[in-house]
Amino acid sequence: MSDEQYNGLRASLREIPDPRHRQGRLSPVVNILIMLIVAAVHGQRSLRGMVRWAEAHGSDLRVKGGIEWLAHPPISGTLWRIGALLDMAHVEHALSRWMQDGGGDAIGVDAKSLRGSQRREGLPALAVVVAAAQGIRIVLRRNGVAAGNVTDAALQLLQGMPLEGKVVTLDAEPNHR
Question: How far, in whole angstroms, is CA 32 from its chain's centroid?
Fold first, then answer.
């Protein structure tokens, strides 16, 4: 991630209130969220993996992300507890704004069938349409596909997104109707 993307992320996350009591706070919630998001952007999918990634890339987080830890990043249990306490509506709003502002100038829209979601014999698997910021490889929005109409789902997904100055690519997959 670029310095500009780090700065935009920090600015967007500052509006999220810290749900913890003041006693026992060792790291600001903004630092914790930056660590989790950057680790996820770099391919980490578990809290344990994110902590290990942060330990291995601590100097990058300090220099680019402006994150300072007392001795080491928070442990997985702390991250899980904070995640459980956070108001996800605040987090989603802040991330959505950051991704739309700093996610690069390309958005990819693609339809996906959810693996293992076929409910009964003869019924199709559940399908979704996703819009992803190509610059940071994160899903901006997702929408279910009703009655197999991928085109309508994609158009609904793009409504209200700030698309000015963006290149939007759509995947024409013949398996989705």
Answer: 14
**Close Cβ partners of 32 (under 8 Å, ≥ 6 residues apart):** 74, 78, 79, 82
Under 8 Å between Cβ of 51 and 75: yes
The pLDDT score that the predictor gives to residue 57 is 87
Dist. CA 65–CA 38, nearest whole Å: 9
**Whether residue 177 has pLDDT greater than 50:** no
Q: What is the pLDDT of residues 20-74, one digit of tens each?
A: 888 777 788 888 898 888 888 888 889 899 999 988 988 888 777 777 776 778 8
For the beta sheet containing 138-144, the strands, ordered from the edge strand earlier in sequence to the opposite edge, are: 138-144, 127-133, 106-113, 167-170
Residue given tokens 């704004």 in the structure block: 97
Residue type, 141: R
pTM over 0.85: no
Q: Where are the domains of the chain?
A: 3-101, 104-170
3-state SS assignment for residue 119? coil
Answer yes or no: are the C-beta atoms of 32 and 69 closer than 8 Å. Answer: no
Alpha carbon distance 112, 127 (integer Å): 6
Residue 41 CA to residue 22 CA, distance in Å, equals 29
